[in-house]
Specification:
This protein has 162 residues and is of the alpha+beta class. It has 2 helices and 5 strands.
């Protein structure tokens, strides 16, 4: 799973949804910046920033070839000027939930579900909320035909008695 590709897919989906809902003049989705200098402030539109946050893995079920279920958490951060207006936080989080809840990203085996909502901080009438969405994918080991040595050579099969 390439997490950058997943971030790109979700940002594209959100921005396309904003266009379809005719609210793209008020809202935008962005990637998490590579470095702090790329983060633009102040902002005109209310925005949601998409970031791969973390993964958890289930134990491998077998002893031969390895495959593991990975639960991926994508975190959405919100920046708005107010809460209740048509350009505010409540409208933005509603649109994000409508767009992503139940969406199945490419290379994932499960539709997206909401895991958690919380605040990064709240002080001086400024708050920084986020919501976590989760999906799953399966990681499978790359096939290595050299593992275990060469195949059978000069094999003689003897018939067994009934």
């Amino acid at each position: 799973m390439n997490y950058g590709t997943l971030e790109n897919e979700l940002v594209t989906r959100l921005n396309d949804y904003f266009i379809d809902q005719a609210v793209d003049a008020s809202f935008e989705a962005l990637f998490i910046p590579e470095k702090q200098s790329e983060q633009s402030r102040p902002f005109d539109k209310s925005r949601v920033t998409v970031q791969y946050f973390n993964s958890t893995y289930q134990p491998a079920p077998g002893i031969n070839e390895v495959s593991q279920l990975e639960t991926i958490t994508m975190r959405l951060y919100f920046e708005t000027r107010d809460l209740r207006s048509d350009r505010g936080f409540y409208k933005l989080i509603e649109l994000c939930k409508r767009s992503l809840l139940g969406y199945k990203p490419a290379n994932c085996s499960k539709r997206m579900t909401i895991d958690k909502y919380d605040l990064v901080f709240y002080e001086n009438n400024t708050f920084s909320p986020y919501i976590d969405f989760q999906t799953e994918t399966v990681n499978v080991q790359a096939f290595d035909d050299t593992e275990g040595g060469p195949g059978f050579t000069n094999l003689t099969i003897q018939r067994q008695c009934p």
